[in-house]
Amino acid sequence: MTQISRILGERSGSEKGPLLLILTQVHGNEPAGYYAVQELFQRIDQEYQNKADFDYRGRIVALRGNLAAIASGQRFIDEDFNRIWTDERVKQVQNSPLDQLKSQEEKELKGLLETIQALMDQHPDEQVVLLDLHTTTAKGGMFLIPSTDDNSRALGLNIHAPLLHGFLDGLEGTILHYFRQKNFPHHQLTSICFEAGQHDSLSSVGHAVSAIIQCFTAMGGFYAADIEMKHELRLSEENQGLPKEGRLAYCHRIHQGDNFKMRSDKIYRNFDPIYKGELLAEDKNGPIYSPLDGLILMPLYQKQGNDGFFIIEDMDLSAPKLGRKIPKTILNA
């Protein structure tokens, strides 16, 4: 079997500048990020060929996440790679020999973290952004999940997709939880997640390309004069009518043996409106109804996964509630 490389590729401008780390395929069945990076690098190479004065600042490095899951075409092997990045778990993995790690995903964590740390150490004085690319099983709109720092929100607003807050309160052990400034005090680190659309949709690749370009432009890498307006327009137009910013209001947890299934007579798309009391799914305990009005997000239409669906509420930023934690009563334990 061909060995899959952790580093997917990289491109650098002639001027010193920010470092963009593009993380693809944290889940092995989400290939859109991989194809988006290939398209991005091809476009950069073409720009150099077609425009004698084309250049940019900084460096773009694309990484693969879960190598074993990619090889097998599965979301994960032993456990969800995007749920094990707690501070305690990371420290334990860092201090353990590779052959003593409990799961394939712990081995992946060790390899990915060492690679990212080495790359960041090459840019001690530059801004670093980790852009984590994903797709969902459901069709429908794209969206962004910021980390808790203000820089992440500001960056997200420049990508022109719904910016959804509260996921770091509603979930545990995601990559965004770990890649925060407090864990990398010697670097200027910002992280953000972009969900590009449905797993197998060609449009998800285009969405991801545009998001990367908008992100690196906002970082001061690409010069705005070199960037076609079509990327901003694509993102803005396709997200018309969706919340500019929203908040996680409810997360339906799945436990082993639940036999969770979304209802089969209605296929939900991301951001479809749902209403309190609406039948959404079922498990071993019976029907599952929506506990509130809102917009459904990431309904689960695959066998592997820890979360059945999420419910989002639109945000009125004139109200002082941006930093409010999600009440535990609305998280399905």
Automatic annotation (TrEMBL):
It holds the Pfam family AstE_AspA_cat. Keywords: Hydrolase, Metal-binding, Zinc. Its cofactor is Zn(2+). The keyword Zinc applies. One of its GO terms (molecular function) is metal ion binding. One of its GO terms (cellular component) is cytosol. Residues 17-155 form the Succinylglutamate desuccinylase/Aspartoacylase catalytic domain. It is an enzyme of class 3 (hydrolase). The keyword Metal-binding applies. Its EC number is 3.5.1.96. PANTHER family: ASPARTOACYLASE, SUCCINYLGLUTAMATE DESUCCINYLASE. This is Succinylglutamate desuccinylase/aspartoacylase family protein. The gene is astE.
